[in-house]
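Intended use. Records like the one below are meant for learning the mapping from a protein sequence to its folded structure. Do not use them to infer anything beyond what is encoded.
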Amino acid sequence: MKKTKIKISAEIELLIPELIGAFRRFQKLSGPDHELQTREFRTTCENVQKIETAFEKANFDEEFYSREIIAAYLLYHFPVHYGQGLSRLGELPFVPKRVLEVASGLAPFSLAALKYGAQEVFAIDQNEVMLKLGSELIGRAGYPITMRTWSYGKDLFPIPGTFDLIILPYCLNELFPDALKNSEERKMQFIQECLARLNPTGFLLLVDRTDQRSNTQILKIREHFVSKGIAIQAPCLCKSFCPALDSKSPCFAQREYEKPYFIKELQRGAGIFLNSLKMSYLILKSPHAKWPQLQNEASLFRVVSPPIEHHVGKRYYLCGVNGKGKLDLSIAEKTYDLQRGSLIALEGRSKYKMVAAPGKPLPEIDETSTV
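Structure written out for the chain above:
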């Protein structure tokens, strides 16, 4: 199925009135449907800060699941994670028909899958309050979704069958805290079990924060499964040892978008300084699948840094099939379309050709076509 062309900022903007309405029903409050009242705004910003601190410290205590925290997550993190989901799902080569979001919370990534055209979407989480609120919100948006309560350590999933896409969003530190015995081993085993529930052409999407702890965790997961022969759909082209992990450098996605005013105000009030959608992520392919087949892959590189001032102009750091690379552009070069995550073909140290913009699928060779 052909994917719909989606503008992330516009989709988030359209969602905000629905979020405010859901917030008021959930909190049993009255007020305008297009903005928060002053007291509501201040309380929401305070709780957004608490959520950010909990994610940063990987400390998910009982307060993290209070109604006030859930309401703040609804207004800020839900639309941001929805935008991230739209961005990451845009990198898949086809629209997944059957999708499962694990430890979903309010299920923003499920909504992103539905927006792209997924036909069967399931969300599972231990928190019944969040599932009910997420189900109401997604239902009012006009999409069908099946939600089930689930807690790690019992059945693998309460949904039978295999999937075209399984999503693990911001949940690994919650499911496998450092204090858990054999945490690392159990985490890898769980991911392996998720991979086993994919269709032969399916994908496993992991999304997390960009702080050093979370980013390193994603890179280590990448290293573990590549060593076991699992192919990667995105963002990596390199099929061997991770250059970023080797150099202890961060490697994450950054998607520019026009932030809605509502999101800007919440970030200002909560002291969050983000100019883009940033996330650590990894899309693993089914154990039955091969690495993406690309033409002239040795010349292809992913841009893994913002432009850095250089004595000749701008420098970009790259990562390709054979590891690291650099691109130096003079001041006269037009670089407005070259962002972190862009896929380019290097034509010399200072020349390149754009192959795919950030958030777009790889231009894979159709092996079924004939010349």
